[in-house]
Design goal:
heterodimer; A: 163 residues; alpha/beta; Beta Polymerase, domain 2; two-stranded parallel sheet; 7 strands; 26% helix; B: 397 residues; alpha+beta; Cytochrome-c3 Hydrogenase, chain B; 2 domains; 3-stranded antiparallel β-sheet; 14 helices; 47% helix; globular
């Protein structure tokens, strides 16, 4: 029997409800549950979490895993944090939007688009965030192959001669 | 009446930091608002990937000028969790002390800004004068007013002496007296009530929907506080109340912050009275074991959450920082809609968006050809001298 009955129950409930879509579910320690889910099932899982007292989406972490790009959704009831991970192929990264469930996630989803180039299906049009208006739209700074030095070298205005 | 869209910001006298609000106006009333951010993006998450864990501590401290301790403590909690480090109890207590002193300084600052935005500038002058007391405490304990740099991986950098403890208690006693006056003022002064009641409404269901955090959420009756919900540091040993208010407006946010000050004073005294004995830091290896973790923290403005992934080297693989203001700005758009143009600065200020402050001035003197650094005493002397020339004597103060 585990030391963390509440965490184990949430893990078991999610596994029972979403079956094959969920993998690598893990109770890391008290108050921390981690799991992977397929991109298609993400909106359903987030809706289920919201209906089951995890009504605060603390943030979304974008992550460059190499072949795949990841997005980690940290949902919480302020006590227990459930981190839901989705993976999407680097060649054609796309994740469905969860704005229907969590309207407050707008800036987190824009950040995924801007910093990692993950296309969010269902994101309303609007101004980019957080990068500047004149930043190239085909460069994604949080990808591992994006180097600050390369970018700075391209900026002619910054290459002033040293006196 | 035809609609007109006006931009407020990114540079605007009513805003203390660059952000843009597109306001759709019908006459003086706001019918729609969108928030645009990103003017201050500094690429810190990318920068963190190229620096060691210890270097990042000083980078992360500069995420925010006011919540500097909040960000480093969240970051360091993650690092220590991955390194499986047993942080000494005394270090945790000192971190808690700094966390609460920081909350006091942040909330007093906010009371001043709120007073200023509601046209009650006397309150602004009073609270900022009193805030100097808590900044003096922080300077006495850490050597710095704003970026305290008290945290280090495995503990804290400075211990607290009995003399310092007495100095803090003396200043806190003064602040308790002042804060009771502010609470009386907030509850009885008709100017405050007239300017803040029913302004910037955020009902409970919208606060949950938009993910509001901190005093903004608690003023809408949402009993959410990481210190109570998932106690970190030594909060589970401290006796304090979770403050909520149910008016859902700027007045509620004022009351919540004022009452939280009282709770913070209580906690500061508890920590100082029961400061555990022992070492203040342990050694932690440069390389952090691979793994990932996520931790949150109740900063003065609300929940601050960090995600950290380590790959076994001395540099993090990924560090994600979400500061409380980002979570709260989604609620601001709602608060503005249906309100009046004249209320905009007050409503925006009511979530307490971040701004930096700094103390000492470095002056380049071209005649002498060198830089002179003025201390607080020097600046005070200069200002008294300046006023005396104009016939006003401040020497007695």
């Amino acid at each position: 029997m585990s030391d963390f009955p509440r965490e184990e129950k949430i893990k078991a409930d999610i596994e029972a409800k979403f079956g094959g879509a969920v993998s690598n579910a893990l109770v890391q320690r008290k108050n921390r549950v981690w799991l992977d889910v397929t991109t298609e099932k993400l909106p359903d899982l987030m809706a289920w979490l919201k209906a089951n007292s995890f009504d605060h989406l603390a943030t979304v972490t974008g992550f460059d895993e190499g072949e795949n790009l990841g997005a980690y959704y940290h949902a919480t009831d302020t006590k227990l944090i459930v981190t839901v991970k989705v993976k999407t192929p680097r060649a054609n990264p796309s994740i469905p939007s969860i704005l229907k469930t969590f309207p407050g996630a707008l800036s987190y989803e824009r950040e995924l688009e801007d910093m990692l180039g993950i296309k969010i299906d269902g994101l309303p049009p609007g101004r980019r965030y957080p990068l500047a208006e004149d930043f190239p739209t085909d460069q994604y700074p949080l990808r591992k192959d994006w180097k600050t030095e390369d970018y700075l070298a391209q900026q002619a205005a910054l290459n002033t001669e040293a006196k | 009446m035809s609609k007109i869209t006006i931009p407020l910001g990114p540079q605007h006298p009513a805003l203390k930091e660059p952000e843009n609000f597109m306001l759709v106006l019908e006459g003086e009333q706001i019918s729609g608002a969108t928030v645009n951010l990103g003017y201050n993006h500094r690429g810190m998450e990318k920068a963190a990937e190229g620096r060691t864990y210890l270097q990042n501590l000083y980078l992360i401290e500069r995420v925010c000028g006011i919540c500097s301790h909040s960000h480093t403590t969240t970051y360091i909690t993650n690092v220590e969790e991955l390194a499986k480090c047993e942080t000494p109890k005394r270090a945790l207590a000192i971190r808690t002390l700094f966390a609460e002193l920081e909350r006091v300084h942040s909330h007093l600052l906010w009371l001043g800004v709120a007073g200023y935005e509601m046209g009650f500038e006397t309150l602004f002058m009073y609270t900022w004068r009193d805030r100097e007391q808590v900044l003096d405490c922080l300077e006495m304990l850490s050597g710095n007013r704003v970026h305290y740099s008290i945290n280090t991986i495995g503990g804290v950098r400075r211990d607290i002496t009995p003399e310092q403890k007495a100095g803090v208690v003396q200043r806190i006693n003064y602040l308790i007296e002042r804060t009771n006056y502010y609470i009386k003022l907030a509850l009885e002064e008709p100017t405050v009530a007239a300017r803040t009641a029913n302004v910037g409404k955020l009902p409970l269901d919208v606060a949950i929907e938009r993910g509001a955090v901190g005093p903004t959420a608690r003023a809408s009756g949402l009993a959410r506080d990481v210190r109570k919900d998932e106690p970190y540091l030594i909060y589970n040993e401290l006796d304090f109340k979770l403050i909520t208010h149910n008016t859902n407006d700027v007045f509620g946010r004022l009351v919540v912050r004022a009452l939280e000050l009282v709770e913070s004073y209580k906690m500061i005294k508890q920590v100082l009275n029961d400061l555990p004995e022992g070492p203040i830091a342990v050694k932690v290896p440069m390389r952090i074991a691979p793994g990932e973790c996520v931790n949150h923290y109740e900063a003065p403005r609300g929940e601050d959450i960090h995600y950290l992934k380590s790959n076994g080297t001395d540099k993090p693989e990924r560090l994600k920082v979400r500061a409380p203001t980002l979570a709260n700005l989604q609620s601001v758009a709602y608060m503005l809609e249906g309100g009046w143009l004249a209320d905009v600065p007050l409503v925006i200020a009511a979530i307490d968006p971040c701004m930096s402050c700094t103390d000492r001035a470095a002056v380049w003197n071209p005649k002498k050809g060198k830089t002179e650094v003025y201390s607080w005493e020097d600046l005070r002397k200069l200002s008294i001298e300046q006023y005396r020339k104009r016939g006003v004597d401040f020497t007695r103060l």
